[in-house]
Amino acid sequence: MVVTETVAERFRKSEVAELLARYPGLRVIPAGAMALRVEGEFRFCANGKTTEVIEDSYEVRIEVPPNFPKRMALVWETGGRIRPNYHRLDNGALCLGSRLGVRLQMGRSVSILRFVERCLIPYLYGYSYAEKHGAPPFGELEHGERGSLQELASLLCIQDLHLALALSFPAATKRRRANRRLCPCGSGRRLGRCHNRKVNALRRRVGRLVLASEMRVIAQAFSEQSPRKRSVVEPETGVAKASLLQMSREAGGQATIPAWVHRGGRALCQQPVQGFATEEVVRLA
Amino acid sequence: MLNEPEFGRQYLEVIIESLDIPQSLYARAANRHRSLAEWLCRPGSRLREFNPHVSSQGSFRLGTVVRPLVQDAVYDLDNVTTLMLHKAVITQKQLKEVYGLEIADYAKANDMIAAPEEKNRCWRLPYADEVKFHLDSLPSLAEEETFARSLHVRNVPEAWAKRAIAITDKRHPAYAQQTMLWPTSNPRGFARWLESRMGTFADTKRLELVQRRFYATVEAVPTYELKTPLQRAIQLLKRHRDVMFVDNPDVAPISMIITNLAGHAYGGEADVLAAVRGILARMLTYVRTERPHVPNPTHPDEDYADKWAKAPELELYFRQWHSQAVQDFNRLPALMDAAALRTATSRSFRVDLRDAHLQSLGLAAAAPAIIIPPSAPRVQISSPARPWGGGD
Q1: CA neighbor of A281 nearest in space, from A251, A248, A245, A240
Q2: Do B388 and A104 touch (CB under 8 A)?
Q3: From the CA of A191, how many Å to the nearest CA of chain B?
Q4: Contact of B293 with B303, CB cutoff 8 Å
Q5: A29: part of which helix (H) or strand (E)?
Q6: Which helix (H) or strand (E) holds B85?
């Protein structure tokens, strides 16, 4: 039997009442169907593990879509304090973190309070800190998909962006299937005997399907940036096929092309290997 | 300076004062109902033989009208006309139409600006005086005794149950058919129930008005004269709702939901501040998770929140409003800072606090505003997401 969540239950889980009580400058503004808009003066007080306590306030508008957190909430700073070129999306919303970064902060929670405290406060704290000290305290990601690769690399605890990309594909694949493949690091061993711990940890932390969808977005983005875009879009399906080599070059990776990509002069991922969630978008140049 | 509860009480008094309507408007509304009743009972009326009984309903009946936000807004006036006629001898459509003819004649005889407009359940009569009204007049038949008994069996006291009526609804599947299955309602029973929820304050006020010779008997005292803490609390909640949904009035929680839940949740508090806070604290416990979500206490099958089933966002808006109201009624009456209070009051109630108001509250309006914002709770940031740039 499918138990559908009542509006009351979902609203309770969204913790709007708690948000308003904790941040009294914020107000709920009735927005479009089933969505939520909160705006007003957002006064917060926060500190990092090793950084100072900062109390500050910003004028913000938070828009929460009905299918939050599947689609992430967006925040605009309406007071004009944050400079326009500081980590923003195209629509002017604050870029609180990479897609994966924000998703990992939220988990499956639908709580707006959690979103505000885990995603918005660190961003605003970071900006206030940067105003004072010149740089944000917790680091920052590069713009565009290079930033996404940096996020993957840090989740895998490695430096090499290309390897991070290569290891993320098997992490977006079922474990048993991925472990049988050659390890992308070029060691010549199967993944199950090589980088499997890192890959498994990433899969566990992020979730295979979330990761698969993230890899599709990354591949799509690289394909759209590519000058060879026209030639790599499948006319009948419209699916963009990005070249891993090209993605690697554009990502600035210096590592050798992993062995699982080549096998006997053929691209492994060109073979119809079922279960590799992202294989349809990866093709050797 | 006043202590906090006293400050809050006086603050809400100031708000209520500015959202109350003049007593003369209530009197004028009562005249409208009387005039219509006289018309329906005149010799030559098509309905006279069915002994029409016109009674006021809605916020004018309950004494919970709130001054509209815009200057020349139209006041909603509701009444219900009940005929002593059996459902077996007339269809809903016939009743609606014959009543429509009478209403049209009434509009002509009174030189109204436009012809009556047919709504799903009622006829709307536009008035154009110096104060704009429109009167929604609901034709109905008195329900049978067996129906009243069936309500009584479901723990509705007899005095309320016997006021149930059968109404017409154009959307009803048997609208044009001869059937005993009519939509039913009980607005007069609801008004009696709400009066019973006002507690001893209503009786005390009635006695006081009779002793001061404003009215001859306690029965003659209209509900709008009572101004009990429950009525005041409902007015405050309605104004808060009006302001919050000023740009989206169609999705605002309807007055009957707020009134109904407030009636249930009112705990007999003597002062308005405690009443409104108590109502908000308990209100959600009276919203049922399944249909009927917000039943009429004098007609358990009638759901004031019937639209929630088709438009679940309305429930969401209701809950959003409730959360905001809890926050505002907890915070504002304790905000002893002139500038901040003025801004917050304007934002939440659209009421401009004048210097005289602030002085009566013990706040120096002219003093420079030194706002000490309340401290935000400390958040420890650990493993945060790093700011990114999106797709460029």
Answers
A1: A240
A2: no
A3: 29
A4: yes
A5: strand A26-29
A6: none
Report, in this order, helix, strand and coil percent for chain A, each rounded to 5: 45, 15, 40
- Does the CB of B378 have a partner CB in chain A at under 8 Å? yes
Interface predicted TM-score (ipTM) of this complex, two decimals: 0.86
CA distance A100 to B384: 12
Q: Diameter of chain A by CA atoms?
A: 64
Half-sphere exposure in the Cβ direction for B84 (13 Å, CA): 7
Name the residue facing A47 among B308, B312, B380 (closest C-beta): B380
- B387 CB within 8 Å of a chain A CB: yes
pLDDT value at residue A13: 95
What is the pTM assigned to this prediction?
0.86
Residue pair A203/A277 in contact (Cβ under 8 Å)? The answer is: no
DSSP readout, B266-334? ----SSHHHHHHHHHHHGGGGS-SSSSSSEETTEEEEETTTHHHH-THHHHHHHHHHHHHHHHHHHGGG
d(CA A82, CA B378): 22
Query: Taking a contact as any Cβ pair under 8 Å apart, which residues of chain A between 105 and 134 contact chain B?
Result: 105, 117-119, 121-123, 125-126
Please calculate the CA angle A270-A273-A276 and round it to the nearest 5 degrees.
100
d(CA A97, CA A120): 9
Q: What are phi and psi of A260, to 5 degrees?
A: -70, -15
Q: Is A157 on the interface with B (CB under 8 A)?
A: no
Q: Among A65, A96, A54, A100, which residue's Cα sits nearest to residue A210? A: A100
Query: Residue B390 — pLDDT band, cuts 50, 70, 90?
Result: low
Burial A136-161 (b: 16+ CB within 10 A, else e): bbbebbbbbbbbbbbbbbbbbebebb
First to last CA, chain B: 57
Per-residue tens of pLDDT for chain A, all 285 residues:
556 788 899 999 999 999 999 999 999 998 776 678 999 999 999 999 999 999 999 999 999 998 898 899 999 999 999 999 899 988 999 999 999 999 999 988 999 999 999 999 999 999 999 999 998 999 889 888 889 999 999 999 998 898 999 999 999 999 999 999 999 988 999 999 999 999 999 999 999 999 999 999 888 887 776 655 444 444 444 344 444 545 555 544 443 333 333 333 333 333 333 333 333 333 332
Residue A283: the pLDDT is 35
How many other CB atoms are there within 10 angstroms of residue B204's CB atom?
12
